[in-house]
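Researcher: Next sequence.
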Amino acid sequence: MKTLLRASKNLEQVVEYEWQQMSYADLVKAPHLDNKGDQDAYVKNVLADQLDAEIVLKLAKLIALDSVMGLEVRAIDGAINMRAINFNAWAHRQAKFFIAVWCDPTMSDDLNQQFKALHLENLGVYGAYSSDISQAETKRVWPSETGRRLHQIAKQYDPNQIFNQSRRI
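Model: Next structure:
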């Protein structure tokens, strides 16, 4: 992983660089404040089983867009991938990397168009980290059997979609 990070610094001028291994709980501190829904960025993401040269080149093109504010790459693996695919709503057990791109929300249409190249490589989408609430994106969050299973659960226990969290199953 360190080799990949060192190589990624050559994609563009690096303004600030820091690397350290840490737990997710330490990385993302819960602020314990009310969520007012005032997100000032539009986020798209994909889950991937590898970071090969083709994906890195596509990311480099995305970073070059004027609308892009940031790129996030996280390694995911271990315990999350040790369960059966139908264990819960997380259907992406083979994913090794989470890749997110942040942009100005007024430029979301441009990012959605440019992001299509990454959808060819991805295994799915982490729904809670996606500003795109389209049906196409929802199918990437909960594909095939997982989506059908969740739809049946929602139909039975939440027919009025009270708990849909902006993403209709």
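Model: DSSP finds six helices and three strands in the chain. The first strand starts at residue 42 and ends at 48.
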